[in-house]
Amino acid sequence: MRIVTSEEMRNIDKAAIERIGIPALVLMENAGRAVAEEAMRLTAQAHGGPAKRWLVLAGKGNNGADGLVAARHLLEAGCEVGIAYAADPAGFRGEAAVQRDIAANLGLPAVVYAGSEGDPIYWTRYDGIVDALLGTGSRGAPAGVYAALIREANASGLPIVAIDTPSGLDADTGNLHDPCIRAARTVALAYAKRGLVQYPGAGAAGEVVVRAIGIPARLAEQIGVRTFALDERTLRERLGVDPARAREADTHKGTYGHALIAAGSRPMSGAGLLSARAALRGGCGLVTWAVPDRLVEPLAGRVPEAMIYGLPDEERGDWSGVAPAALSQLTVGKDALVLGPGLGRWAGDGDWLRELLAGLDPALPIVLDADSLNILADMPEASAQLCGRRAVLTPHPGEMARLAGFAVPDIQRDRIEAARRYATQHAVTLVLKGARTVVATPEGDVYVNATGNPGMATGGAGDVLAGLVGSLLAQGRTPDQAAAFGVWLHGAAGDRAAAGRPTSSSLVAGDIIEAL
Ligand SMILES: NC(=O)C1=CN([C@@H]2O[C@H](COP(=O)(O)OP(=O)(O)OC[C@H]3O[C@@H](n4cnc5c(N)ncnc54)[C@H](OP(=O)(O)O)[C@@H]3O)[C@@H](O)[C@H]2O)[C@@H](O)CC1
Ligand SMILES: Nc1ncnc2c1ncn2[C@@H]1O[C@H](COP(=O)(O)OP(=O)(O)O)[C@@H](O)[C@H]1O
Ligand SMILES: [K+]
């Protein structure tokens, strides 16, 4: 399923209407009917029966016109329906004027809301609200009467079904204007809009239901939409990953690759422990866990299934004393390298990373996480060494901000474009972590993940992901496959783990590994 911007949606609508010849009124009819169905389904679930009394808040554009169609279908289904116009319907044009006339001819009761000066809306007379104020044509913060209606609707406590986007949402980024509708359900027409799948927008949208309205599916591909929901179908159809694939009988541990996890130092040995265990649960045949020599003794036996390897560390117990050449030598014969969790920082770490990257087989796939990303951020010229190699970078927003040279809010404001920009400019696969993790490929495709939960906001959850992605790389997955499949699996495991806990807040990173 593709995810679109407002502009992409306008281009798709235009192609459907002008190039293919589907009348706009047909699309609108399908949209309004779908909204009425979803509205009744929502309240049937919540109250044990469909809400009987609906108030449709209608703006002056096509989103409002969709709302008028929905009002008509709700009426036909036996509901009482009122309309509150946010603008004088006498000024409506095009399809909105057509729908206004149909609603009037049917005798649907309507008021033109004039703000605090005009007649009040008696919200208690209704059981539910349809938000048809603003859709993909919205610009900036809702103004005047639109803003007043949004505030009152939110304050009413009634369940709100938003058409296409909650009014007040920036549909391209997921940022919220003030005010913004807080919907229980958003019925996205034809495609999910980007703002519905990134926070805080995803929170304002409630449950997002995508409904077909008669737009041919191939149009999104034709106009070049390159953002996708990361689900089982996308994994199979776009990324060539079968999540349910079983192992062939005639295989052995050598079939499934050998991952080298270079992670952990004295104060952060647990990071390496989690990555190594996650790599094993991720299914690779062999895991070698490389640590500074002094850590071998205390860590020996902690992950019995992995081979632990001590690199000479000048007796420091951290990576500052480890020669990059010793680590690159250890990668010989391995199928993937994970570098970063619990690595630490030290004077001269930039030169260290540069030398390490220069010494690695260019064909060796690598995962860079945590401090290896912070080192990279301090020496942007080293990122050129990544170009063209099979690399997956897994920053959280703080690491991403350092890498890209922006502040965290600049990254979070448009996570999809921030990830895409970095991945294409540096020719790497980039995983921007956090709620609704974004995976961007060097070609500019972006996958938005929906698995995972806030219980995973716990130390070490990222180390688990790095080990898992490394494990998938070692098994021969491409960087794009390993990153996307790894992110999806990691979130799904987090969901299973959270379901097995009395509260999601008690989830720890090790639980995610056990649920893999
Ligand atoms: N195209 C199609 O065929 C199909 C489209 N579909 C539907 O159409 C929706 C897009 O419709 P749209 O393009 O008419 O824009 P829409 O979101 O209704 O709002 C624009 C109006 O609001 C106003 N306005 C803007 N910002 C504002 C603000 N901050 N505060 C206050 N007012 C503001 C602006 O007025 P202006 O400022 O320009 O005078 C303009 O008149 C889409 O989401 C889907 O629901 C489906 O039916 C399928 C077929
Ligand atoms: N609210 C959330 N919803 C879904 N996933 C989350 C949430 N919070 C954190 N995660 C996931 O948990 C992991 C945390 O990684 P990171 O921030 O690197 O933690 P750490 O450095 O402690 O290991 C990431 O994969 C992230 O996407
Ligand atoms: K809306």
Automatic annotation (TrEMBL):
<feature type="binding site">
    <location>
        <begin position="433"/>
        <end position="437"/>
    </location>
    <ligand>
        <name>AMP</name>
    </ligand>
</feature>
<keyword id="KW-0456">Lyase</keyword>
<dbReference type="GO" id="GO:0046872">
    <property type="term" value="F:metal ion binding"/>
</dbReference>
<dbReference type="GO" id="GO:0005524">
    <property type="term" value="F:ATP binding"/>
</dbReference>
<dbReference type="InterPro" id="IPR036652">
    <property type="entry name" value="YjeF_N_dom_sf"/>
</dbReference>
<feature type="binding site">
    <location>
        <position position="63"/>
    </location>
    <ligand>
        <name>K(+)</name>
    </ligand>
</feature>
<comment type="similarity">
    <text>Belongs to the NnrD/CARKD family.</text>
</comment>
<feature type="domain" description="YjeF N-terminal">
    <location>
        <begin position="9"/>
        <end position="221"/>
    </location>
</feature>
<dbReference type="GO" id="GO:0110051">
    <property type="term" value="P:metabolite repair"/>
</dbReference>
<feature type="binding site">
    <location>
        <begin position="135"/>
        <end position="141"/>
    </location>
    <ligand>
        <name>(6S)-NADPHX</name>
    </ligand>
</feature>
<dbReference type="Pfam" id="PF01256">
    <property type="entry name" value="Carb_kinase"/>
</dbReference>
<dbReference type="GO" id="GO:0052856">
    <property type="term" value="F:NAD(P)HX epimerase activity"/>
</dbReference>
<protein>
    <recommendedName>
        <fullName>Bifunctional NAD(P)H-hydrate repair enzyme</fullName>
        <ecNumber>4.2.1.136</ecNumber>
        <ecNumber>5.1.99.6</ecNumber>
    </recommendedName>
</protein>
<dbReference type="InterPro" id="IPR029056">
    <property type="entry name" value="Ribokinase-like"/>
</dbReference>
<feature type="binding site">
    <location>
        <position position="463"/>
    </location>
    <ligand>
        <name>(6S)-NADPHX</name>
    </ligand>
</feature>
<dbReference type="GO" id="GO:0046496">
    <property type="term" value="P:nicotinamide nucleotide metabolic process"/>
</dbReference>
<keyword id="KW-0479">Metal-binding</keyword>
<feature type="binding site">
    <location>
        <position position="164"/>
    </location>
    <ligand>
        <name>(6S)-NADPHX</name>
    </ligand>
</feature>
<dbReference type="InterPro" id="IPR030677">
    <property type="entry name" value="Nnr"/>
</dbReference>
<keyword id="KW-0547">Nucleotide-binding</keyword>
<dbReference type="Pfam" id="PF03853">
    <property type="entry name" value="YjeF_N"/>
</dbReference>
<feature type="binding site">
    <location>
        <begin position="62"/>
        <end position="66"/>
    </location>
    <ligand>
        <name>(6S)-NADPHX</name>
    </ligand>
</feature>
<comment type="function">
    <text>Bifunctional enzyme that catalyzes the epimerization of the S- and R-forms of NAD(P)HX and the dehydration of the S-form of NAD(P)HX at the expense of ADP, which is converted to AMP. This allows the repair of both epimers of NAD(P)HX, a damaged form of NAD(P)H that is a result of enzymatic or heat-dependent hydration.</text>
</comment>
<feature type="binding site">
    <location>
        <position position="342"/>
    </location>
    <ligand>
        <name>(6S)-NADPHX</name>
    </ligand>
</feature>
<comment type="similarity">
    <text>Belongs to the NnrE/AIBP family.</text>
</comment>
<keyword id="KW-0630">Potassium</keyword>
<dbReference type="InterPro" id="IPR017953">
    <property type="entry name" value="Carbohydrate_kinase_pred_CS"/>
</dbReference>
<feature type="binding site">
    <location>
        <position position="271"/>
    </location>
    <ligand>
        <name>(6S)-NADPHX</name>
    </ligand>
</feature>
<keyword id="KW-0520">NAD</keyword>
<feature type="binding site">
    <location>
        <position position="146"/>
    </location>
    <ligand>
        <name>(6S)-NADPHX</name>
    </ligand>
</feature>
<feature type="binding site">
    <location>
        <position position="167"/>
    </location>
    <ligand>
        <name>K(+)</name>
    </ligand>
</feature>
<feature type="binding site">
    <location>
        <position position="131"/>
    </location>
    <ligand>
        <name>K(+)</name>
    </ligand>
</feature>
<dbReference type="GO" id="GO:0052855">
    <property type="term" value="F:ADP-dependent NAD(P)H-hydrate dehydratase activity"/>
</dbReference>
<comment type="subunit">
    <text>Homotetramer.</text>
</comment>
<feature type="domain" description="YjeF C-terminal">
    <location>
        <begin position="236"/>
        <end position="516"/>
    </location>
</feature>
<keyword id="KW-0067">ATP-binding</keyword>
<comment type="function">
    <text>Catalyzes the dehydration of the S-form of NAD(P)HX at the expense of ADP, which is converted to AMP. Together with NAD(P)HX epimerase, which catalyzes the epimerization of the S- and R-forms, the enzyme allows the repair of both epimers of NAD(P)HX, a damaged form of NAD(P)H that is a result of enzymatic or heat-dependent hydration.</text>
</comment>
<feature type="binding site">
    <location>
        <position position="396"/>
    </location>
    <ligand>
        <name>(6S)-NADPHX</name>
    </ligand>
</feature>
<dbReference type="InterPro" id="IPR000631">
    <property type="entry name" value="CARKD"/>
</dbReference>
<keyword id="KW-0413">Isomerase</keyword>
<feature type="binding site">
    <location>
        <position position="462"/>
    </location>
    <ligand>
        <name>AMP</name>
    </ligand>
</feature>
<keyword id="KW-0521">NADP</keyword>
